[in-house]
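Researcher: Predict the fold of PCI domain-containing protein.
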Amino acid sequence: MTREVLLVWQSSKSRIGRRRRTLKPETPTPPPEMAAYLSMGEAHRRIGDYLSRVVNAISSSDGAALASLVAVSSAPGSTPLSDALATFPDFPRLAGDRYPHLADFLVPLLRSIHSHSLQRFADAYSSFEKAASAFLQEFRNWETPWALEAMHTVALEIRLLAEKADRELAMTGKNPDKLQAAGSFLMKVFGALAVKGPKRIGALYVTCQLFKIYFRLGTVNLCRSVIRSIETARNFDFEDFPVKDKVTYMYYTGRLEVFNENFLVADQKLTYALMHCNPQSESNLRRILKFLVPVKLSIGVLPKRTLLERYNLLEERRSQATQASPRQA
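Model: Structure tokens for PCI domain-containing protein follow.
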């Protein structure tokens, strides 16, 4: 610990000590109030309101609103909707009776939200996959790409829920197979996007979700078929994709080139990712540099020490010592 840090701690302790001598004895904190009773009628109203918002988002082609409504994994354990689902167990019939044309989507979506709030993640994943499959079928039938943001949220959610489910299954001694199933589903989503028309602009985002699954599972060889579809199909023009998706794509394909020891190609891809990454996202910049620094060293380029210090990468540099005579980048 440096002298400066010690001084900071010493001065902080002295201030704390002075405050303790002058503060009055604290009043005991009262116990938290009991949660308000939720009537069946109020639970019915909340569930109905949620269903109405989902259906209205679809009927008005509001992709952003729909995307927020299908985000399951980011919800806290207790929400007004999850409390209502716990109070009103007959919610599947309510959804099916009110909106029978969307029952295949709405009923499992509610079940997934309910299971997730109870931290039954394997059940939440299974229900969400059913909802996602029904949504994908509807998405295929819509001519315009208005629901692309919602489809991206579904792709993200199914990966995140699968990761939670696999952790739960592994802890209980069961086969953690949900992430593999999520990869299979996302390939169907990719197929729905890899067509001529405006929907193809969303294909790279789904590709990046697939990369994250394959890297986590250690099945990176499966990336190759998706890469061929992106880089050789006439349907795609790489420059048309959103910048953030191109950065993620170059990051993962650059890592693949590192594994294959194609360091010059890896340097090009990772450098592209670094140059186009949001400069405010230091965590993402560091992720890129963790692979780019060793690549630079392997081709005889020594990154500046200030860069390594800024992103706390000195250990990576030491562990990647090279016998080549480096030049300053």
